[in-house]
């Protein structure tokens, strides 16, 4: 086995309660789900101990290696498990700086691919993932989950609610650090995660969606005018809810049906790139958007 291919899924925050600081980090309580938007990662064994990463798409070619989480993940894997290295190619489809967890997804995907290549189980990869980013441990598994602590405590919740979403992605991202600092200056938002989860468990999806919230939304609005513009444009289609994912700048609208979502996308005439998304439980099979004939979770050679 010399080559492994995997798909690294984007995530949406359905809720994100910011609960204050603990040990220098912000504590959160968040419901997250993976969606059918993915990066493709191809990993090939090397005979030496080097990790060589090539990035393609979404402007990722300009990311310096020392700032690239895919590079960091590969180097950490080799250091910890004392394996030989790998040539890694990342084909990006997830927008950068949109709050979709693309960087964390790539790190998680590299760890999963190297784990397959060198026979290391996921359970041993979680500590490495947590060192690489708050979402990375969750994105090793994907699906529907509740994240607490600084995001490293993952409670998998089974099937995600079926949601059809129109996402708008401004070209200008929002720095997570700046967004959290700005949030500290503003009035705290009311937590909604527990209430949303209660409605979902009772089968009342519409009420749950109406309570989707993100405690970083006010800060993101204050930092990025495009976040405000994307929100206003989506509200013009009268969806069930408009929400921010992560610290932005991606803003999404949830519609009652796929048809309404498609209708809104077909009539959108703004400047932001629109994405039509659906929640996906990657543990039970994610439709391959790349149509390359590979299995749902990857392929070995």
Concise structural overview:
This protein is α+β, with helices and mostly antiparallel strands and 301 residues long. Helix content is 33%, strand content 29%.
Q: What would CATH call the class of the largest domain?
A: Alpha Beta
* Overall residue-averaged pLDDT value: 92
Low-confidence stretches: 284-301
- Tell me the fraction of residues in β-strands, as a range: 25-35%
Helix and strand layout, with pairings?
Elements: E1 3-22, E2 25-45, E3 51-56, H1 69-81, E4 86-91, H2 102-118, H3 122-132, H4 136-139, E5 144-148, E6 153-156, E7 164-169, H5 176-185, H6 193-201, H7 205-210, E8 213-214, H8 217-223, H9 225-235, E9 241-244, E10 251-255, H10 258-267, E11 273-278, E12 299-300
Parallel strand pairs: 1-8, 3-4
Antiparallel strand pairs: 1-2, 1-12, 2-4, 2-5, 5-6, 7-10, 7-11, 9-10
Helix pairs in contact: 1-2, 1-3, 2-3, 5-8, 8-9
Commentary on this structure:
By secondary structure, the protein is an alpha+beta fold. The protein has 2 domains: 3-158, Ribosomal Protein S5, domain 2, CATH 3.30.230.10; 164-278, Alpha-Beta Plaits (2-Layer Sandwich), CATH 3.30.70. The chain has helices at 69-81, 102-118, 122-132, 136-139, 176-185, 193-201, 205-210, 217-223, 225-235, 258-267; strands at 3-22, 25-45, 51-56, 86-91, 144-148, 153-156, 164-169, 213-214, 241-244, 251-255, 273-278, 299-300. The strands form 2 sheets. Strands 1, 2, 3, 4, 5, 6, 8 and 12 form an 8-stranded mixed sheet that branches. The protein is globular, with a radius of gyration of 19 Å. The model is unreliable at 284-301 (pLDDT under 50).
